[in-house]
C-alpha cells in the first residue's frame, strides 16, 4: 500500500515544478477559504477588471494612454450600470413585492388543485398522502417566510457594506486596469523560481477566465433581454422579474435552467391554466433555453463544450459548496483548471526541456 503511494508520489511530484504547482494551488485555496469574506471586494474588482481589460487594451494599443483608456471605459461602465439599475430596479422591486404578497393566493390555488388528485387518480394518489405532504409543505413555507423576513432585516444592515463596495470596487478596478503590467510583474516576482508549470497553467487559465467572464456577461444580457421581451409581449405576469431571473440563471450551468423553469411554469399555469397560452409560453421558453444551450454556449464558451455535462454539474456542486456564489460562477473555469492540472502533472503533457549540450572537446 505504502509502496504504491510512494510510486504515485514519485511519478507525479518528482519534478520540483509539479510540487511547486501543488503548493501554489493549495495556498491560494486556503487563502480564499479562510479570508474569502474579507477579500470579497477584491474578488469583485478582479472579475470586473477582467471584463473591461480587453476593451482597455485595444484602445491603449491604438495610441491612447493606458490611464486615459482606463478612465474613459470605467466611466462609461459605471454610467451604463447606473442607468440600467435605475431603469430596471423599480419595476423588479415592485414585481418582487407583488409576487411575495401573492404567494399565499398562489398556494391556495395549488392546494385546491392538489386535493382533487385522489378523486382523479385514486389508484396513484391517496387522500392521506396528500394531507401529509401538504402539512409538510405548509411548515416549510412558514419557515421560508421567516427566512425572507430575516433576510430583509439583514439587507438593511448590509447597506453599509454596499456603500463600501460602491467606493472601493471602482477604485480598485481603476488601479488594476491602469497598472496591470506592473501588478502582474510584482505577482510573478513573488512566485518561486521553480515556476515553469505554474506559468504554463496560469497563462492558459488567464485567457480562459477572461473569455469566460466576458462570455458569461454577454450570455446573461442576451438571454435576459430575450426572455423579458418574450414574457412582456405574451403578457405574462411578473414578466420583467422572471426574465431577469432567467438571464441570471445561466450563472449556474444546467441546474439554473432547471430551477428557474419552476417559477416560470408556475406563474404561467396560475395565470392561464391548461390553455393554449400556457403551451405557447412554455414553447417559447423551451426555444430560448435550447438556443442558449446549443448556440450561445458553444459560441461563447469553447472550453465548456470540451467538458462533459456531468463534470460541469459536479464542478458546480463541489466548488459552490466550498466558495458559494463565486464557486458556482467560476465552476467551468475551475473545472478546466482541474483538467489543466491533470495534464500538467501527467508527464506526456508537460513541455519537454532539452537536455544541456555537452561541451565539445
Notes on the protein architecture:
This protein has 361 residues and is mainly α. It has 15 helices and no strands. Helix 3 runs parallel beside helix 7 (159-178), helix 3 packs across helix 9 (196-233) and helix 9 (196-233) packs antiparallel against helix 12 (276-300).
Sum up the structure in keywords:
361 residues, mainly alpha, 2 domains, 83% helix, disordered C terminus, transmembrane, membrane, transmembrane helix, transport
Taken in chain order, the helices and strands follow as HHHHHHHHHHHHHHH
Strand share of the residues? under 5%
Low-confidence stretches: 348-361
| Number of β-strand runs | 0
* Amino-to-carboxy terminus distance: 49 Å
Query: What count of domains describes the coordinates?
Result: 2
What structural category characterises the helix and strand content?
A: mainly alpha
The portion of residues assigned to helices is over 70%
Main beta sheet: none
Number of helical segments with 4 or more residues? 15
Radius of gyration: 26 Å
Oligomer: single chain
Shape descriptor: globular
What average pLDDT do the residues reach? Answer: 78
